[in-house]
Design a protein that fits this description.
Layout lengths: L3 E4 L22 E4 L4 H6 L1 H8 L7 H40 L3 H37 L19 E6 L12 H7 L3 E2 H7 L6 E2 L1 H20 L3 E2 L5 E3 H7 L11 E2 L4 E3 L4 H5 L6 E3 L5 E10 L18 E11 L4 H19 L3 E5 L11 E9 L4 E10 L3 H6 L2 E3 L5 E3 L1 E9 H11 L1 E2 L2 E3 L5 H4 L3 E2 L1
Parallel strand pairs: 6-11, 10-16
Antiparallel strand pairs: 1-2, 3-13, 4-5, 7-9, 8-9, 11-12, 12-18, 13-14, 14-15, 15-18, 16-17, 19-20, 20-21
């Protein structure tokens, strides 16, 4: 099944005021579940181009090329099939001629089969080249945004849909986290620079314990919510990168071990989702939820300034991820569940946060719909992104060949989702800055059983 378009009879969603918005993504006037396969593109050309325009992409030429390549592919395939069929028929005729003692006629036909074999070889090579060119083009086309993704160019066009928590009132001499790290000797950025380079901090003493406490707390929350914990590889092969869409899109942002052609993971999403590459599940096995802690590695060259200082932008950082494999009709309920799960974590940490629905221009390559969580840093007086929760619909599953056998016994593409629960650097920055007092940095109550202390002083 390559097309699922579900029309929701409730069209009032678009008429709601922003303040009336609920996080139930099923309140869509159009829910559109797709894989970027050629039959879908061919039959929904205008819709695909219209939705990709939300990403500020004029996809008209690419889509025309896809359809053109596919027409060439089908033409060559038809000619190859006819050539093989003719060759097989003649071979059968040759056998019958030999049986009937007409060797001279049979030998004459052999020359024709030889020419047909040469022709089929040429056609097969042409077909492989056309399929390869078509696949390379398809790999460059991002996922088609969900209907409710707002148009926009930058993060300034993202829509705030929820906000909670009280922004603390800090004392007069409050410091940003990089100054607090130095004052209490808990994170050493200069030492990390000496050992490796900028963006590789060293956590020390109570800073290291707080980091470990957050990891354990996040994993405990996720496993209690039904996610199975995995310990995953920190390097992946090229096929895994293509499967989840980091390649070729994010190749320049990944650390590449060239001799072995392996990539350091930018997120646990990559090895975690690739567990299911080339897998056919039973429908009864859905949903599947997994969680895992990994260090993450991103080259991410960026500008200088306070917005990238300290923990705000790193090349190596820790993250706990949640992943789901879902039935296509249930993935948006699952997305809401993931959003609510992260909300409970931030509520327990008592950090002020907000949720944004990303616009097309800020949407990740593989995502159909993404919600970003941001925590407010009082000391920096700005919002810091700490989590992205996305529904990829069938986009990754199509690349991964991740399917399930439905109730009719047919193979159907699953939906994949993932989210940070949570990325540690900016959560840690938020805790250090928002919990600072004149006497030291208090530890959120929910973490104290993990840290063994209640204050950094």
């Amino acid at each position: 099944m390559w097309l699922l378009i579900i029309l929701n009879t409730t069209i009032g969603f678009y008429l709601q005021k922003k303040s009336d918005y609920t996080l139930n993504s099923l309140n869509l006037s159009l829910k559109f579940l797709l894989m970027l396969q050629v039959p879908f593109i061919r039959e929904n050309k205008d819709l695909v181009i219209e939705r990709l325009a939300k990403r500020n992409i004029d996809a008209s030429k690419m889509i025309d090329e896809v359809i053109g390549f596919d027409e060439d592919r089908k033409r060559i395939q038809t000619e190859l099939d006819n050539t093989l069929a003719e060759s097989n028929a003649i071979s059968k005729e040759i056998g019958n001629l030999y049986k009937s003692g007409e060797a001279q006629k049979a030998n004459a036909l052999k020359e024709k089969t030889s020419a047909l074999k040469d022709k089929s070889k040429t056609l097969n090579e042409a077909l492989n080249n056309k399929v390869e060119a078509l696949n390379e083009l398809l790999y460059k086309i991002p996922n088609v945004p969900n209907a409710i993704v707002p148009s926009g160019n930058t993060d300034e066009d993202n829509e705030e849909i929820f906000k909670a928590g009280d922004i603390p009132v800090l004392h007069e001499d409050a410091l940003p986290h990089w100054e607090l790290a130095k004052k209490y000797d808990i994170i050493d950025f200069e030492l990390g620079n000496k050992i490796t380079g900028a963006g590789f901090p060293v956590y020390k003493g109570k800073g290291a314990k707080l980091q470990r406490a957050l990891i354990a707390y996040f994993l405990d929350k996720n496993t209690k919510a039904g996610y199975t914990e995995y310990q995953l590889p920190l390097m992946v092969n090229e096929a895994s990168g293509f499967g989840t869409g980091q390649l070729p899109d994010k190749e320049g942002q990944m650390y590449h071990v060239t001799e072995d052609n392996l990539y350091l993971i930018p997120t646990a999403e990559v090895p975690g989702t690739n567990i299911f590459r080339d897998v056919v599940l039973n429908e009864s096995e859905l949903p599947i939820g997994i969680t895992g802690y990994t260090p993450c590695f991103r080259r991410e060259a960026g500008s200088y300034g306070a917005h990238v200082r300290g923990l705000n932008r790193l090349h190596q950082f820790d993250k706990v991820e949640i992943l789901r494999v879902e039935h296509p009709t249930k993935s948006y309920d699952a997305l809401d569940g993931m959003v609510n799960h992260v909300k409970t974590i931030l509520q327990e940490l008592k950090l002020p946060y907000r949720i944004l629905r990303l616009c097309g221009g800020d949407l990740g390559f593989t995502s159909a719909l993404t919600y970003d969580f941001e925590v407010f840093s009082k000391a920096q007086d700005r919002w810091l992104e700490i989590s992205s929760i996305s529904n990829f619909e069938t986009f990754q599953a199509n690349r991964l060949k991740l399917r399930f056998k439905n109730s009719d016994g047919k193979n159907e593409l699953a939906h994949t989702l993932n989210g940070s629960a949570l990325a540690l650097p900016r959560v840690l920055a938020g805790i250090l800055e928002n919990y600072q007092t004149k006497d030291g940095i208090k530890i959120p109550e929910v973490l104290q059983s993990y840290t063994g202390f209640s204050i950094i002083d």
